[in-house]
Sequence to fold (235 residues):
Amino acid sequence: DAGVIQSPRHEVTEMGQEVTLRCKPISGHDYLFWYRQTMMRGLELLIYFNNNVPIDDSGMPEDRFSAKMPNASFSTLKIQPSEPRDSAVYFCASRPVQGQISGANVLTFGAGSRLTVL
Amino acid sequence: AQKITQTQPGMFVQEKEAVTLDCTYDTSDPSYGLFWYKQPSSGEMIFLIYQGSYDQQNATEGRYSLNFQKARKSANLVISASQLGDSAMYFCAMREGQNNQGGKLIFGQGTELSVKP
Fold:
């Protein structure tokens, strides 16, 4: 299995531009999560989906952020317009419903997308 | 609300020695899971070990073990025989609810471990 695939790995953009981050979860995983990592705030959960349906988006910072999962193999996180304070590493992660290790259904992370907004 | 606390921003350990990374948690849910992840300088998040709240024995995975003290709400990670490759950030995380009932994974602030040769 190729694991969770994220693109782009690095993005540098200017304030006000639209940013779209993409994620392909592991095939067969029913849950998909978007996290943001910064030095100041650590790892924050932004939103998660179950069977393509958003379950909890309470971590989405504001209306400039939106996430979609049009099918089981693809999700996007969009920021419009972007601001310098959005600079962070954005992780996508997925997991199955059934546990695979000692009863735990472990979250598998992608490599992350490093966003820099100038 | 759930909360995960890692009180050690940074730790040093001599190669081949054991080290304990602290993690305390707070939850009112009797069913929960505790996880440790490693993040090396390359940035990826690597799962290390899991402990369920109803598990009777402490979890072990190779050189990693989890010192689970339920009454004290602590889930410390013990790394035995440290190696230079263990130098990384380590995150403790918790999910409330049974495994198959959804639930989000909440992370602590992390502990940066440096292994000295």
